[in-house]
Design goal:
The structure is a homodimer.
Chain A: H1 9-24, H2 28-44, H3 46-62, H4 67-73, H5 77-92, E1 100-107, E2 110-118, E3 121-125, H6 130-142, E4 146-150, H7 156-172, E5 181-182, H8 187-193, E6 201-204, H9 208-216, E7 230-234, H10 240-252, E8 261-267, H11 270-286, E9 290-293, H12 295-307, E10 316-318, E11 331-337, H13 340-350, E12 355-359, H14 363-372, E13 377-382, E14 399-401, E15 409-411, E16 417-428, H15 430-434, E17 443-444
Parallel strand pairs in A: 3-4, 3-6, 4-5, 7-8, 7-12, 8-11, 9-10, 9-11, 12-13
Antiparallel strand pairs in A: 1-2, 1-17, 2-16, 14-15
Helix pairs in contact in A: 2-5, 2-7, 3-7, 5-6, 6-7, 13-14
Chain lengths: ~450, ~450
Amino acid sequence: MIEDKDMVVRDEVRKMKLVAPLVAALSNETRCAALSKIAEKLVEKQSEIFAENKKDLEYAEQAGVAAPIVKRLKFDEGKLRDVVAGINQLITLEDPIGKVTLDRELDEGLRLTRVTCPIGVIGVIFEARPDALVQISSLCIRSGNCPVLKGGKETTYTNRILFGIIYDAVKEAGFPDGCMLQVEQHNEIDELLTCDGLVDLLIPRGSNAFVRYIMDNTHIPVMGHADGVCHIYVDSKADIEKAISIIIDAKTQYTAACNAVETLLIQRDDVLKKNFIPRLITALAENGIKLRGTKEVTDLVDAYYENESKDGSLDYESVDESDFKEYLALIVSAKFVDNVDEAIDHINLHGSHHTDAIITEDDATAERFMQLVDSAGVYQNCSTRFADGFRYGFGAEVGISTSKIHARGPVGLEGLVTYKYKLVGKGQIVGDYATGKSAFHFKDL
Amino acid sequence: MIEDKDMVVRDEVRKMKLVAPLVAALSNETRCAALSKIAEKLVEKQSEIFAENKKDLEYAEQAGVAAPIVKRLKFDEGKLRDVVAGINQLITLEDPIGKVTLDRELDEGLRLTRVTCPIGVIGVIFEARPDALVQISSLCIRSGNCPVLKGGKETTYTNRILFGIIYDAVKEAGFPDGCMLQVEQHNEIDELLTCDGLVDLLIPRGSNAFVRYIMDNTHIPVMGHADGVCHIYVDSKADIEKAISIIIDAKTQYTAACNAVETLLIQRDDVLKKNFIPRLITALAENGIKLRGTKEVTDLVDAYYENESKDGSLDYESVDESDFKEYLALIVSAKFVDNVDEAIDHINLHGSHHTDAIITEDDATAERFMQLVDSAGVYQNCSTRFADGFRYGFGAEVGISTSKIHARGPVGLEGLVTYKYKLVGKGQIVGDYATGKSAFHFKDL
């Protein structure tokens, strides 16, 4: 299905390294015009795109790919509408490039400015979702970065035509040759990993094992998350109906997502045991969610079923809390904690610093939780599934970062920007400041 | 000299992980009060500090440590005055923590805020300079972070008393137990490197080989630079006297610094060849700087000495430009380039993205250079030695970053800060937005 290609990634990336500053210097107008042109051409060429996408879908069906995955491969009118809307939203956002974030006179005639600029060459390795290619490219173009794109092989035909359309559009808008690169072979990922000094940032999207592989095999900085173990803490002051509705949404609305809930922490409170646990048991059972609880939790389930019908009963098992993990499936862990502080410590030690929620009507407890939980997202009374660039109003995201370095949480335009310091003088030398002949006066302008 | 200690770093750091959120929640007043108390106690206990420092100095002299290094180990009244001034400057800086950088209503009753917060647990491994311990600790305290400090072994006694004074001061000010940690054994560095998931960031300071060793042997994010190959480009429109004075300062003012110049790029221009090269030859010779130039450069030196006295002549050799490197010594590389664009490409491909300067009176050329050179610092008509946290008015620095991710250039308080997203709702679930029952309205507040 994929044709052989020479191993030329390094050469191409080396050229891109010199093109990147030219792209960084393009005006906001040029970058926005490129995006408009992309949106225009995608609509214009939709039947060709759909035809290429059909090849990928047929190939996937022949290969016996599971139906839910085939659905993600599809690029239809709905997906086209969504990506075009995303591009148009990106155009309306404030330019992230060229912002002066510091303007300081160090001394008479010696002026320091700090100006935001693109990161440069960004390698993005993403799952087989054609809309992801458009979103990631658009974010890079809006922020003046040069992307090296490697999509999932199941959408090779679709990726190829989408990339061609986007590349043609940006060149028509005035972008230089070599400002974008698509690689198609899996072994080219390994070649890309050796390009430290040329590639400024890698953004891998995919399984934990894949992200870990990338991190372990390159000297290039990597932005990404390897885990999404999200918690919901149900406080004794929780509104029980909100708690149930949020837990079910956070577990079932998109089970395979990194922001789906994996662990429930429940305050050890008699009222919750009496009123919340039975509601939780029936809600989990109704939604086909398996419960892996500590013995204290499953004893309550046992007690519940002593009095209740076992029809449509809950699938549950007793496990040690050291066995709690990321399921990405209709399974949830649960344990009791004494109070919000025990919940906080559990999350900070065992969580993945992604997104964690408290359900409580007590705002002081919520504030304590949100202050002390050390995660990219800390929520009160809403679903962990809200952790997403679109839902935060960022237009799109290149990924969600659980690192605390650089970008945290959903990463939109701001995460694709760095800065440089510019210093303009009249011949000043440091020796004069060291000897006291001159002195700094640090005036912010 | 150093006593044996159990390998307990991991246990201590694990405790610190749970203490870090409490430190992050301390008020600006408490953090500033801690700094004032440190300054006060350092002055109060100065004779004890100097006595401990004397032990380190005596030990170094017995061990035959070179005089310039012994000088760096010294902690005297001048150094004390400097660190106290640095602490007092830090107190006056704006609080970097708790800044709301986004406040957005996603929908009625669903409010997203982004708030700056400390990074958490930061491991800093630094050279044998007692003032570095005070500066790094102060930056961490001001920004609400918990430092794990490993200083050079040559200042063990001084570090120990300084750490003790600082730790007592912050605890008196209301910081919790375990908010700071000092490790003394070299093998404890390796233990620290295994603490991914507990330590949020490592900042190694030291040789290229050392920083590279750290990067290659940990999964913890590392902030630092491995190289400082700084360039000065002398444009045909340069003021020659400024050029000479800046080059000499950038090479000699502190030769071992990462912001010292290593490579000169000179425009291939007849006037420069005639007027600048002879001035450069004599200035380099006068300052004992060896020139490693391409043949085109050394041919001009040869020609010069055909007519001039060889007394006090320049030490020079002809080398291939692929042999240019970081010297950290009184040696400088030089080559000719056709124009600013060739200089830019050379710097972007061969530089270390640290600090690079252009010497020119032509502001348009300077602007092009500063736009297109992809370095943390891009300078016009001043010495590369200005790249420093103090000289930028940051109060202090924990290091200089040549990475474009997170922090770039001299890293002060802002580089020790991350953010979290807080989302407060009334029971909202994502399912309602997916089905269209609810819709986002994204109002910035």
